[in-house]
């Protein structure tokens, strides 16, 4: 196959695969200029998982002079992906190839069987891409590890690359892609996670090279939301966000995408299966949007009743896993679900909090924020985020023990600004003070103008309530149309 300038190999992905198994195919090429195995040769070896790539060097008369071959390398602790076996005269190639390849497959299979599964979760290879001018690169990588843990996925290896900008086809370079393919196979990974969002075009091109499932950052977050949504409203919002994300990424090829119409009276362009799938998704999206509009009207009615009752509303906002639900439980003496995980709370909760002198407020807990919150998620959870619009005060909870404290505070404030909610009064609460020294807690209180508390132990809660009361009850009369604005303020 091919000519003096290159070899064009067909797609062998559907041929013989499995844990520790090669394709059962070896590629033998002739090199006319005495060159060693080329980069293209090794790329084909890795991407197609061939048994071996063999180059036959020929002399000026076209007779075979020597043979050079390479194979994939089992995990050896040094990170090697390809093993070169040197050059030898073809007449001296005297060994049983089937015995050799069986032994090599056994080494791969033994290495994969010996991998610690770490539980029932999936094994994932994480692709971390640092682009020029990227802030918070380390925070992004740590966040992806935490997102994976929350989703029940174990990261077994990381492929990193720095680029001035993302590759339009693969996000990372093609050389890194072949590195990724072999590493995923070596580590027994059945999932490849990208710490950035992939375009539909990038997904299609990557899937052409990678057999494992491809999941980007938004898709992973949506999966976590789907795991934690318990109410009908939460499930509707998650499904809507997922469908909006998937619609532009629907694709197909081959016989399954052929025209459905056929025969006498049915010939013509017809409608492809892909078009049918897209139409069904759009119909489902419209149905979900109508259901959520009804939810939004119900919530609006509830908020109007609160306004007529004259009750101030505190909305707890903050970065995910900052301790918002734990604080709600501590303030209102309730037992809402709270876990040490990202996005453990998807369904909003409202509770009543009584201050001294028999004065009550409504406290609402909302979904956690994260940097670069997916637009599909914001659109899908609009009904929930509307709870923040009528807040008298935003209680901004931040994780005092996080090494990225200020970045997370800035990310939350930026998201509030993007939602048009940055005009609400905000009070900063520095949670998890029990995880830092008292000196650090006092220093951060002064620098960030907040109150340090521990929602777990209750430390600082009384001081927090004393600071909140004058903010909420400076005037006994509230603007019912915009309850966050006090009369005379």
Order of helices and strands: EHEEEHEHEHEHEHHHEHEEHHEHEHEH
Distance between the termini: 81 Å
Number of helices: 14
Q: Strand order across the biggest sheet?
A: 10-11-9-12-13-14
Report the mean per-residue pLDDT as an integer.
79
Architecture per CATH nomenclature, i.e. the level-2 architecture of the largest domain: 3-Layer(aba) Sandwich
**CATH fold topology of the largest domain:** Rossmann fold
Kindly provide the name of the CATH class of the largest domain: Alpha Beta
CA-based gyration radius: 29 Å
The gross shape turns out to be elongated
Strand content: 15-25%
Quantity of strands, as a count: 14
The low-pLDDT segments are 253-268, 475-489
Task: Please name the defining characteristics of this protein.
single chain, 489 residues, alpha/beta, Rossmann fold, four-stranded mixed β-sheet, 14 strands, elongated, disordered C terminus
What would your notes on this structure say?
This protein is an alpha/beta fold and 489 residues long. It has three domains: 26-113, no CATH class; 122-215, GTPase HflX, N-terminal domain (Rossmann fold, 3-Layer(aba) Sandwich), CATH 3.40.50.11060; 306-472, Rossmann fold (3-Layer(aba) Sandwich), CATH 3.40.50.300. It has helices at 39-48, 97-113, 137-150, 174-186, 200-209, 217-228, 232-246, 273-309, 324-332, 375-380, 382-385, 405-418, 438-448, 461-472, and strands at 26-31, 52-58, 64-72, 82-88, 122-131, 153-163, 191-194, 213-215, 313-318, 349-355, 359-365, 393-399, 426-431, 451-452. The protein has a six-stranded mixed sheet, with helices on both faces. A four-stranded mixed sheet has the order 1-2-3-4, covered by helices on one side. A four-stranded parallel sheet has the order 6-5-7-8, with helices on both faces. Strand 5, helix 3 and strand 6 (153-163) form a beta-alpha-beta unit. The longest helix is centred in the middle third of the chain and has 37 residues, at 273-309.
């Amino acid at each position: 196959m091919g000519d003096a300038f290159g070899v064009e190999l067909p797609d062998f992905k559907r041929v013989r695969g499995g844990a520790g198994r090669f394709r059962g195919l070896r590629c033998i090429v002739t090199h006319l200029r005495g060159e060693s195995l080329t980069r293209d040769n090794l790329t084909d070896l890795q991407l197609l998982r061939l048994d071996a790539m063999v180059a036959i060097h020929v002399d000026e008369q076209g007779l075979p002079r020597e043979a050079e071959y390479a194979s994939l390398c089992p995990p050896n602790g040094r990170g090697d992906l390809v093993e070169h076996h040197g050059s030898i005269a073809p007449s001296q190639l005297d060994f049983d190839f089937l015995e050799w390849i069986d032994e090599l497959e056994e080494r791969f299979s033994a290495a994969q069987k010996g991998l610690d599964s770490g539980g029932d979760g999936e094994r994932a290879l994480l692709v971390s891409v640092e682009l020029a001018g990227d802030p918070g690169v380390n925070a992004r990588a740590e966040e992806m590890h935490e997102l994976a843990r929350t989703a029940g996925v174990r990261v077994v290896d990381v492929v990193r690359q720095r680029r001035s900008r993302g590759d339009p086809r693969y996000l990372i370079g093609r050389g890194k892609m072949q590195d990724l393919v072999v590493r995923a196979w070596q580590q027994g990974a059945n999932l490849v996670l990208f710490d950035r969002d992939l375009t539909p075009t990038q997904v299609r091109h990557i899937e052409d090279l990678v057999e494992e499932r491809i999941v980007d950052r938004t898709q992973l977050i949506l999966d976590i939301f789907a795991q934690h949504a318990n109410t009908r409203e939460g499930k509707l919002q998650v499904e809507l966000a997922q469908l909006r994300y998937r619609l532009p990424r629907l694709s197909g090829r081959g016989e399954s995408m052929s025209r459905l119409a056929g025969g006498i009276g049915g010939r013509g362009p017809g409608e492809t299966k892909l078009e049918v799938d897209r139409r069904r998704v759009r119909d489902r999206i419209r149905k979900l949007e109508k259901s959520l509009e009804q939810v939004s009207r119900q919530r609006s009615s509830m908020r109007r009743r609160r306004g007529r009752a004259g009750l101030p509303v505190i909305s707890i906002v903050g970065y995910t896993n900052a301790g918002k639900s734990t604080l709600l439980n501590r303030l209102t003496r309730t037992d809402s679900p709270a876990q040490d995980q990202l996005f453990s709370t998807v369904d909003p909760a409202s509770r009543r909090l009584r201050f001294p002198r028999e004065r009550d407020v409504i406290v609402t807990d909302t979904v956690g924020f994260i940097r670069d919150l997916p637009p599909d998620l914001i659109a899908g959870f609009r009904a929930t985020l509307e709870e923040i619009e009528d807040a008298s005060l935003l209680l901004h909870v931040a994780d005092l023990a996080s090494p990225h404290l200020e970045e997370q505070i800035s990310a939350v404030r930026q998201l509030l600004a993007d939602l048009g909610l940055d005009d609400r009064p905000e009070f900063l609460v520095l949670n998890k003070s029990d995880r830092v020294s008292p000196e650090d807690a006092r220093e951060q209180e002064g620098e960030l103008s907040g109150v340090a508390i521990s929602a777990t132990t209750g430390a600082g809660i009384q001081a927090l309530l004393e600071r909140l009361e004058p903010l909420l009850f400076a005037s006994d009369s509230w603007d019912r149309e915009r309850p966050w604005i006090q009369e005379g303020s």
